[in-house]
Amino acid sequence: MHFVNAHTHRIPCRDEIAVVNLDKDAREVPAEGYWSVGIHPWHICADTLEEELQRLEFFLTLPQVVAVGECGLDRLAKAPWPLQLVSFEKQLDLARKYQKPVIIHNVRSAGELLQIRKRIGNLSPWLLHGFHGSQREAELFLQQGCYLGFGKHLFNSKSKAAVVCAMAPIDRILPETDASEITVTSVIEKIAAIKEIPVSDMLKQLLDNFRRLFVEDHFKSV
Ligand SMILES: [Zn+2]
């Protein structure tokens, strides 16, 4: 059985199927595995944005690039807010054009993200990675067809992540390790415990979720 990892910045272990976030300085994408490519709000620069978007568009033509991201909005990032909005919406356009889901980085921007998703409409599915927002925010994203990614916050007793994970539909959650040192097996075991489901069943369910989000063609049925 394989362990899925929806968002990480490191090369996966054996038996792990992961979407690895391509390093911002990488100039090519390895042929093996699954990759996500995007412009992170921390790394947006007005002078190079067009060039970065062109590079992203080229990468999105590759079959091993299964998602745009991580990208999104970050109230604490240095990049000016209007520039963040331009960068994000251009990446959403590319995601639609190349029919790929989007891995979302969200820092204190849930309201804006939801507004953008509703305003633009007909967007590919989003994975709200590292979700630790409120139950209400989770419900609003779930109503919009989004997925929720859970990782290190599940182990923090002060975080709402475990409560949200407990209530989220089982077919809309995914495990992730992001940039942390935790293993994806520990995250999956934690999710299984929260959901009170045997780990073996959880593995199958998460593999299904992973395939549905990253591998299926989301636009064929539209
Ligand atoms: Zn990340």
Low-confidence stretches: none
Oligomer: single chain
CATH topology: TIM Barrel
- CATH classification class: Alpha Beta
Share of β-strand residues? 15-25%
Structurally, the number of domains stands at 1
Main pleated sheet: 8 strands, parallel
Number of helices: 7
Query: First CA to last CA: what distance?
Result: 32 Å
CATH superfamily: Metal-dependent hydrolases
Bound molecules: zinc ion
- How many beta strands in the DSSP annotation? 8
- CATH architecture classification name: Alpha-Beta Barrel
| Helix proportion range | 25-40%
What structural class is derived from the secondary structure elements? alpha/beta
List the helices and strands and how they pair.
Layout: E1 3-8, E2 16-21, E3 34-37, H1 49-60, E4 65-74, H2 81-97, E5 102-107, H3 110-120, E6 126-128, H4 135-143, E7 147-150, H5 161-167, E8 173-175, H6 184-195, H7 199-214
Parallel strand pairs: 1-2, 2-3, 3-4, 4-5, 5-6, 6-7, 7-8
Helix pairs in contact: 1-2, 6-7
Zinc ion is lined by residues 7, 9, 21, 70, 178-179.
Any overview of this molecule?
The chain has 222 residues and is an alpha/beta fold. It has a single domain, classed as Metal-dependent hydrolases (TIM Barrel). Helices cover 38% and strands 19% of the residues. It is built from 7 helices and 8 strands. Helix 6 packs across helix 7. The site of zinc ion has 6 residues, from loops.
